[in-house]
Amino acid sequence: MTRTLGTPALNVALIGYAFMGAAHSHAWRTAPHFFDLPLRPDLTVLAGRNQAAVTEAAAKLGWSSTETDWRRVLERDDVDLVDVCTPGDTHAEIAIAALEAGKHVLCEKPLANNVAEAEAMADAAAKAAARGVRSMVGFTYRRVPAIGLARQLVAEGRLGQIRHVRAQYLQDWIADPSAPMSWRLDKQKAGSGALGDIGAHIVDLTQHITGQTLTGVSALLETFVKERPLPAAAGSLSGVAGEGTGTVTVDDAAVFLGRFSGGALASFEATRFALGRKNAIRIEINGSRGSLAFDFEDMNVLHFFDGDEPDETAGFRRIVVTEPGHPYVGAWWPAGHGLGYEHGFTHQVVDLVTAIAAEEDPTPSFADGLQVQRVLDAVERSAAANSAYTEIKA
Amino acid sequence: MTRTLGTPALNVALIGYAFMGAAHSHAWRTAPHFFDLPLRPDLTVLAGRNQAAVTEAAAKLGWSSTETDWRRVLERDDVDLVDVCTPGDTHAEIAIAALEAGKHVLCEKPLANNVAEAEAMADAAAKAAARGVRSMVGFTYRRVPAIGLARQLVAEGRLGQIRHVRAQYLQDWIADPSAPMSWRLDKQKAGSGALGDIGAHIVDLTQHITGQTLTGVSALLETFVKERPLPAAAGSLSGVAGEGTGTVTVDDAAVFLGRFSGGALASFEATRFALGRKNAIRIEINGSRGSLAFDFEDMNVLHFFDGDEPDETAGFRRIVVTEPGHPYVGAWWPAGHGLGYEHGFTHQVVDLVTAIAAEEDPTPSFADGLQVQRVLDAVERSAAANSAYTEIKA
Amino acid sequence: MTRTLGTPALNVALIGYAFMGAAHSHAWRTAPHFFDLPLRPDLTVLAGRNQAAVTEAAAKLGWSSTETDWRRVLERDDVDLVDVCTPGDTHAEIAIAALEAGKHVLCEKPLANNVAEAEAMADAAAKAAARGVRSMVGFTYRRVPAIGLARQLVAEGRLGQIRHVRAQYLQDWIADPSAPMSWRLDKQKAGSGALGDIGAHIVDLTQHITGQTLTGVSALLETFVKERPLPAAAGSLSGVAGEGTGTVTVDDAAVFLGRFSGGALASFEATRFALGRKNAIRIEINGSRGSLAFDFEDMNVLHFFDGDEPDETAGFRRIVVTEPGHPYVGAWWPAGHGLGYEHGFTHQVVDLVTAIAAEEDPTPSFADGLQVQRVLDAVERSAAANSAYTEIKA
Amino acid sequence: MTRTLGTPALNVALIGYAFMGAAHSHAWRTAPHFFDLPLRPDLTVLAGRNQAAVTEAAAKLGWSSTETDWRRVLERDDVDLVDVCTPGDTHAEIAIAALEAGKHVLCEKPLANNVAEAEAMADAAAKAAARGVRSMVGFTYRRVPAIGLARQLVAEGRLGQIRHVRAQYLQDWIADPSAPMSWRLDKQKAGSGALGDIGAHIVDLTQHITGQTLTGVSALLETFVKERPLPAAAGSLSGVAGEGTGTVTVDDAAVFLGRFSGGALASFEATRFALGRKNAIRIEINGSRGSLAFDFEDMNVLHFFDGDEPDETAGFRRIVVTEPGHPYVGAWWPAGHGLGYEHGFTHQVVDLVTAIAAEEDPTPSFADGLQVQRVLDAVERSAAANSAYTEIKA
């Protein structure tokens, strides 16, 4: 039951140290203090291009050493796993090289900026797996306990046949036209806008919960604000505006319909212009026996309607997902003491480390990441083709 | 200010006395007791095909006389207004004949079962209006106070430029495959399924609130249960199953995307298969200055996000729409004493009677009903054309 | 099943025509159109002191004749039932006289302004009942369907042993110190303030739902604003201020603890100073097997926690109390089409008329009203005695 | 702006390693990775009576060394601060000794098991403060961002004069009579039951938010289940029952009324028998200008009613307290990414370390803890004196 003091180490390298890097660092530090892990994560090296910045970040985030070239990380014998938290245009190159160097890889989502890259990554992952080298893509919201419970209820048949999936990921951080340019608004760096950044999450989550895949989509994309002030300081999302303007080359919002493999109708929306909604991931699923509803603004709660109840006492149950028997919760606090955003990252580390020790392939795999990429690609092709319904290759 | 005792009468005939007939009867009876109307509605005649049934209904609902042929109603001099609550396939014939006979007409929604009929009705309404004969289509949810307030806030510019409209009308009354056939599942009678029955409402409501129209759509339709048991007793929605099965010829659910005339992206869903949602009309609108959210399951509430607030104190306000200054509310109870479903019908009567007395055309007009019909038609055409984006004639 | 055309009449007289008078009039008019009543209410006479005002009110509210002296009403042979909607200081005199005159009586709550009056009324009611003359006190919130369902669930044992009752009735209409004086703030007229006006409701509701009575209380009363401007126009609650001030002689707020006969702890609060709460009647009950929660701001919903569920899927169910099998609902609309404030009054008429026809005593009886009065009295005595726990006579 | 690598250390000793010990350990480990602290916490020593158990806990929780006698901890020169997470009956002895030994002290709540102990502790803290030795009591919920915002809004006058405070702390972990005995149900160990364990929190929170103190109370206490099975394994709260029963000597629930120094009426309830409520801390405050509502079941949200708004657009705002400008939030994630239960402990460490470095006394002080103890004591005395209103010494 208990982690022995002699637990072998898993030496981790993190590439990138912005928002995601901080979340991943917290997870690597925290997981062993709450969960009994078969391997002890060691925060071995943090990599970033600027020596002064990476040194400061390593001190703040708890990493033992630094590198300014990610290629150097792959050459180090004291690195077992590479955690890729860089912008999407670099994922394929780094992850493939790391796998080829025999390092396990955790790669942030979306897996890549296009299908071709994602295919190459999935190929590399399959080859690496044959050699015992593991890989995982970071769809961390899967590890929110309420999402885990949702998947369980569907798997147990409590929803019956799924008929409707509706999912929205609503943010508002660029609703103001004077919010400045950033790399996330540049197609070269980011691949796409709201679609890949947040739409990817609701595609993954709904497929994960239902155990089904999207088989086709019909879509509209929109860029509401096409020119934005350049930031005063490059790279700053929150920066005040500088001089001149830049052209937004990604979508501000994506809406799409679709069908799931089991016959359900689906409706998706991802936007950065839903004023007042900060990080609202809303998922609602209706089946022939029951329904589910979730909103990340109230992340410790899952609403469940049990259609087997008599009409007079049936109703959506507000399940506070903090019971010891709920996914991941037993390691934390007593019932009613809710978890926060970063716990999903800690759970991700737990599952990844457990799979590595068990010599099993963790999920979501790079193949899963590729499948999501194919959905995003189909959305873009449909939008470019007058919203024509566009099939998604299985 | 006060209704005088000498208020002239408005003699009303009601055609049909099912669910909608009961709601309309209540409204005609109740409106003058809470509102100071310029004309006093008189429940003159109720029409239905079965003499025994219509006689009993008239006694129960408060009508003074009966007819078994609606054509007879139009010949009566003591009828000023015809209220059409029959299935959609009869709307055009009855309403056009009534207008030609010089009777004002209130017609239930959807205006007709197809665009051609709706065009004929709108033409007839325009001609009648030139003679002072008024017509209105019964999109009664417009008269829910929270919806009225929503429209006001948009009109005052509190939302700024509208960027997103998302609307769902969710029911579950045929989610069970053993629920029997009914005229509402027969394309000949009903025109369409969830699309026309409930989708029409959210099309009308979102256009009404935003003051804009939908300019194009991309759609999917689905019939989840294609054969259903015939009802034990014909015409009964709630009846137990009889022998044999019938084929469902309408959609069980409709999902569609679109664009509004002002540039907003829209996402719509209408379904009778959302288990646990009984009559959930949900509308959310995001603009550049503010946002709104409404759910008919909590019909006396409107949620409003004011983007002009500082971030630290901004939040969706739960406005309980029961203040004397809210639309229609002053005539009813003190603040906090909520209204119910049928009040929308009473407000509809108030506005219709007021317009007739003022010799003005009430809204929503038959032209408004035709425009909604064109949206529904575009949805069906898009769904039949591989979801291709389909323009809507202005 | 069906109301026959030959249904005998029940001739009703209404004394008083302010807010409550309008609600009662609506109920008398509406009940027979939705429910199959054994007696047909006839709105025979409306009584009020001012001839012009009562004449206008009768026209507006639908009454056939008027009287300016309530004693005249009792002398009329064409009156079967007297509905008392006057201020509390007149209840005892009118109701007792009416019962003695052989008229059935519906009396608004609180039954009286003090225990002595209430005792006399309960005595009169008991004597009248022996002669077949019926009486009921108007705790109308009992007839909200969600409250009816709550009582059913407790009676079925779904809550087990009751351990906690917490109830609040929160309003804010005099939170502003510049709101003017009114008869409701005058102890002579109103008997008490928030305590009797709204506290009486939550005492009755919690006793009704639990089937138990309060056996003792400990209380604090407070008058936050002791002097208020006199109204510009006498008797107007909403009136702008006139010249001079008057002294508020009733409580603005009452808080009290207590114990129920079955051993539960109770906590009550009634206030007119809860800014932002307009008519929030909140009741929460915890038992050994289940819990209930209700808020009149969302009156068509009852929240039910079933402790028999496994921890992992247990949660408060949001029951939308609009199913045909819910109390009173079958007579109205399909599921999901909510009712409003005034429906409780209509249901009250239904139950009263049904009891009269069945020659049974309706509930809540005057004895029930007396019991509530004793609770209110104990609250006042406790507050006057340093909050000492004060027993309530059974 | 940035924590330098040369930040001096603050060596911490933790006494106790159960639920609270795990939460405190997490906070000491995590604070420096998100906040720029003036001192770097070092997890120097963990103390517990059983060597094997404390060794294992130290490894799991991240402490460098162990002691089995807390007195040894005070003798160590490498300890700057003692964090007391033991049961309440040991707080006074340990904390006073630690202060006398010149160690800063963080002591879990309630400060002590009775007023006499708390007075001694507050005296010791005052004397220690004069020598630059700091102390703080662990009312950690003060550091939930929504609570911090609530206090700010009151301090800014946005609520005006406070008129009502209602607070409930609802749990259900012993609602089942078969839940076994534990030290928390033993008056000798725990001092009191729900009152001191959770009632203390809502007393502290409401006083903190309002900036006022309770001046008197009237109370009822209740023990619903007086005999419980002994646990199979001693000390285990969640253990299955063993043989024999033990007597519960503390309250299962406490309800009390009171008055605040500024004139507000208050109503409190603390219970472990509110079936379905796991850790529901609910606070509602009504003032003359505005109102607030909070529920820890939705801990990242504060509801604020601004009475200055026009009636037509006024409503409780659901403020998602995750903006960079909200208390503590800037150090964590972007807007909309909620925090969890343990973040309050991290914020507590931040404030404590900051105060120590600034040579200031942190809050809540032991004097604050004593004041809460006096309220709890007054509650018990009132309950023992027929609920008589009992003054609280300032």
Automatic annotation (TrEMBL), chains A, B, C, D:
Pfam families for this protein: GFO_IDH_MocA (PF01408), GFO_IDH_MocA_C3 (PF22725)
Keyword line: Oxidoreductase
Domain GFO/IDH/MocA-like oxidoreductase: 150-292
GO molecular-function terms, A-Z: nucleotide binding; oxidoreductase activity
Keyword Oxidoreductase: yes
Annotated ranges, domain Gfo/Idh/MocA-like oxidoreductase N-terminal: 10-130
Keyword Cell inner membrane carried by entry: no
Protein name (Swiss-Prot/TrEMBL): Predicted dehydrogenase
